[in-house]
Amino acid sequence: MRPKSPSRFTDFANATSRATGRPLAFILAVAVVLVWLVTGPLFGYSDTWQLVINTSTTIVTFLMVFLIQHTQNRDTMAVQLKLAELIMAATEAENRLATAEDLSEEELEELHKDFQRRAEEVDRLKQHRARLKHAN
To answer: Which of 53, 76, 89, 107 could serve as 103's disulfide partner, Cβ 3.0–4.6 Å?
Structure first.
């Protein structure tokens, strides 16, 4: 199966996410805030001066949420697919876990309880084996 090339939005979202996650982006953001702070006395700490930073940060935050969410959704789906492949490749694994992200909250909770019970059984078995080993 040949991979389809990502959309322009996906390319843009990935590039933006990578760029804004770097130290230079943080330094740039801090520099903008410092410039804004320094200009406070020049503008008499006016309402307009405050509105500039409030509006700017709100707009940037609003747009970044969508870009980062898109990137996160793609990354999560890729991880889920990789895990599904590993689960299906394991001979002793339960294939129903390969699509666990599609289960309802109730089904996930029941599955979680089932695995807790199984983990406790395994722990008891290991402890029993350890006691037998030390007894011999």
So the answer is: 107
